[in-house]
Amino acid sequence: MKRLSTAEPGFEAAFAALLEEARETTARVDAAVAAIIAEVRARGDAALLDLTARFDRWAPADVAALRVTEAEIEAADAAIAPGLRAALNLAAGRIEAFHRAQLPRDLELRDEAGLTLGMRWGALDAVGLYVPGGKAAYPSSVLMNAIPARAAGVPRIAMCVPAPEGALDPLVLAAAKRAGVTEIFRIGGAQAIAALAWGTAAIAPVDRIVGPGNAYVAEAKRQVFGRVGIDSIAGPSEVVVIADAANDPRHVAVDLLAQAEHDESAQSILITPDAALADAVARAVEAELRSLPRAAIAGESWRRHGAVILVRDLAEAAALTNRLAPEHLQLMVEEPRGLLARIRHAGAAFLGRFCPEAVGDYVAGPNHVLPTGRTARFASGLSVFDFLKRTTWVEADAAALAAIGPAAVALGEAEGLTAHARSVALRLGG
Amino acid sequence: MKRLSTAEPGFEAAFAALLEEARETTARVDAAVAAIIAEVRARGDAALLDLTARFDRWAPADVAALRVTEAEIEAADAAIAPGLRAALNLAAGRIEAFHRAQLPRDLELRDEAGLTLGMRWGALDAVGLYVPGGKAAYPSSVLMNAIPARAAGVPRIAMCVPAPEGALDPLVLAAAKRAGVTEIFRIGGAQAIAALAWGTAAIAPVDRIVGPGNAYVAEAKRQVFGRVGIDSIAGPSEVVVIADAANDPRHVAVDLLAQAEHDESAQSILITPDAALADAVARAVEAELRSLPRAAIAGESWRRHGAVILVRDLAEAAALTNRLAPEHLQLMVEEPRGLLARIRHAGAAFLGRFCPEAVGDYVAGPNHVLPTGRTARFASGLSVFDFLKRTTWVEADAAALAAIGPAAVALGEAEGLTAHARSVALRLGG
Predict the structure, then answer these.
(1) Which pLDDT score, from 0 to 100, does residue B21 have?
(2) How many CB pairs under 8 A join A and B?
(3) A188 to chain B nearest CA, in Å?
(4) pLDDT of residue B135
(5) Catalytic residue among A219, A261, A327, A357
(6) What is the mean predicted confidence (pLDDT) over B238-266?
(7) Where is the active site (chains A, B) (predicted)?
């Protein structure tokens, strides 16, 4: 963990180093992924069967075995504990309500020249959702990726999830059921991405693929981009907590560790004007680590990437936060809304002393798929906008064309595009 | 030009081939571009001077010479013909008005659990605009790329444009002035993209880069993606014209050629239920080509990629159009709004017999930067949304956390993320 103070000489260099710190190195798997995609394109479902046997340590009897049946989904759902089922229902309902509220309205304008201009939103026809298997098979991630697509009106949501040794997490299936997933396939890795992008006999192609994955999945998404849309490739998670003196240091410490426990590359940063709180939080982190099941991961993240930054005041905290453009931001201060108004760049903000980021991971309603690694400067969290596209339209009659057409002719001729100019001039009687 | 008819056997195979037709091959320039980016990162402005001398055939005296001065912009503006100045003003005003109308509203919801949820839109801090030099230096493209950024509220818009032999197109400078560009640099190619993404002493880095360019520029954008946002890489342009019997064949022919004259890879497709119109348009295309300055390009595009598709009715025309998902779509029919309602996938639509696509290229108001190559299935034209990002936020007090916190604890524990669960449980007094 680094300790910085804006009052000390050398702060600017140390902070700049923190900003540029690379927390992740990605393996080069381009060639391996290209080969897998080529194999799926060439051999379709037969390739999926072979690749699943090779990578997921189970041999599907036939193509039909790749598809999870309705009965399997119902059985998985019936098996989960009532408390968890209630939690999933609460989460799904709240996520759906917030994403429905995001739905934009169409535009239609008639102007003084007599043209009508419009912009129409429409849902994608089909979306693919990748869900990692193994340790990162999170039901919350299924809800967060699929529900915005359903809220946007996407009629077909196909999910691929690897089933190591053939097994699937019942909670993941139960989440998929609640999120409106329409098809589930036991397929993982680059082969799943290839199948979703190009289609096989068993899996119809989709228009966009979302969801997290390992280096092979990320590279496969890069390679199919253009054929289909993809979401952004997420980097390791991060949180900035801005906290004043009035906080319980243990609360702040656990919030920092909740981010750190994701993986060793995660980053947790406390920014505070109170030196005593900074010290108390640092001690509380060490104390909490003693009883945390994922202490090895969280401790490594905290030691390698954690930081405590002492500032003169909250204005300085806001300025540093804007340079960090964090994925998650907790504002544990007296007037969190006033502080939020000074923040230009953050993926998601959590206001108040009773609003830990974990409520946003699960049940608050806004999405937990958020821009990482300072990309909140220009990128946004997942939303219904990821599953909608726009068509603009223009309607003109002869009078409207007479009003604005001559300008189009002049510009077309200036750009040397004679047919452009002529297409307008002809209709003006020229 | 291909002639297809839905009534003929073999149509499905021929149409499928049309859908999969690759109209462009891109040169592999990865290594050359990576070297240029590395040079700009290592040597900054000195690299920009060297690379400009090497690629643009002029030697800037010093770094200051790379920046276009206010006086140069004013001189360029003063030199353009009054008719063109009026056309630029009309275009800029209409584009600005349409893009301002797109601006979305923030969201704030209080729910029955006592939480307040919000989504706030904010403009990017700085945007880079690449403008190609030479034959494709289009003032309309400057307006279309920069005005949405200004309408979104972006305070800094830095433009890079190569100046072969040191010269710039006055119309491009005049367009930049009207579009709210705040800085103009005489720098082209991958070196311009590198400078915008990483910054040099003379050019501050931006957060997103937009604008068309050659293969080097496109590859440079790919390589800096992640560091900054980029727009999508545009492919060759295309139009689908749906026209009924009541049209003047010459109008339709010129509209098809207006697309074809862009470049040899462009694609123009007529879909009509009227065989006589199909024949007449095909003849009119040949006639128009005889007097078109860019006949060599337009003719090559028409022969290689053009198509006339005869359909039984407009319902069939809509269904084929949805599979083509064209960049531009003209609806030259009696009831264009009714037909538009059946179109799910198109970048921009032009309704009526007096609405050639060229009005949209220049003056109508909606953007002419649009998704190509069937990507309108999932992608949209440039808009204010490209220059905005969202921050979601959640506000909770103790009572609100008590209402939804237990579900977050249950899900955190189910996912094995103990610190997540603990961060909520602690505040519930657990």
Answers:
(1) 85
(2) 365
(3) 20
(4) 58
(5) A327
(6) 97
(7) 327 (proton acceptor), 328 (proton acceptor)
Tokens 């206010």: give the residue. B70
Chain B CA closest to residue A362: B408
Q: Per CATH, which fold does B30-102+119-230 belong to? A: Rossmann fold (3.40.50)
Digit-coded pLDDT (tens) for B305-343: 999 999 999 999 999 999 999 999 999 999 999 999 999
When scoring A19, A227, A422, A428 by the number of chain B Cβ atoms within 10 A, the one with the most, hence best to mutate, is: A422
**Active site positions of B, annotated:** 327-328
Mean pLDDT of B153-158: 98
Predicted pLDDT at A21: 85
Q: Quote ipTM for the complex.
A: 0.96
Q: If one looks up domain B2-23+237-364 in CATH, what number appears? A: 3.40.50.1980
| Per-residue pLDDT, B134 | 66
Note whether B363 contacts A407, CB cutoff 8 Å.
Answer: yes
Partners of residue A87 in chain B, C-beta under 8 Å: 406-408, 410-411, 414
Mutation for testing the B interface, residue in A391, A397, A401 having most B CBs under 10 Å: A391
- CATH code of A235-377, in short, is 3.40.50.1980
Q: For residue A341, what is the nearest residue in chain B, using CA coordinates?
A: B120
Look up residue A203 and give its amino acid.
I
pLDDT in tens, B46-76: 999 999 999 998 999 999 999 999 999 999 9
Would an 8 Å CB–CB cutoff place A152 in contact with chain B?
no
Nearest beta carbon to residue B298 from set A117, A292, A419: A419
Q: What's the gap in Å between the CA of A388 and the closest CA on chain B?
A: 7
Interface probe with A: pick from B262, B424, B428, most Cβ of A within 10 Å: B424
A247 is in an annotated binding site: no
Residue B136 has pLDDT above 80, yes or no: no
- For helices B45-56 and B189-198, give the axis angle rounded to 10 degrees: 160
Residues 6+ apart with CB under 8 A from A115: A394, A395, A396, A400, A403, A404, B364, B365
Chain A residues whose beta carbon lies within 8 Å of the beta carbon of residue B91: 407, 411
User: What's the pLDDT at B235?
Assistant: 86
**Cβ of B319 under 8 Å from any chain A Cβ?**
no
Q: Are A28 and A222 in contact (CB under 8 A)?
A: no
Selecting from A262, A336, A398 the residue whose C-beta is nearest the C-beta of B354 gives A398
Across chain A, which has 430 residues, the per-10-residue mean pLDDT values are 95 93 80 96 97 92 94 96 96 98 98 97 98 81 98 98 90 96 96 98 97 92 92 89 98 98 95 98 98 96 97 98 97 98 98 98 97 95 98 98 98 96 92
Which CATH superfamily does the domain covering A30-230 fall into?
Nitrogenase molybdenum iron protein domain (3.40.50.1980)
| Residue A323 touches chain B, beta carbons under 8 Å | no
Domains in chain A: boundaries: 30-230, 235-377, 396-427
CA distance A53 to chain B (A): 27
* B379 contact residues in A (CB cutoff 8 A): 229, 389
pLDDT of A430: 60
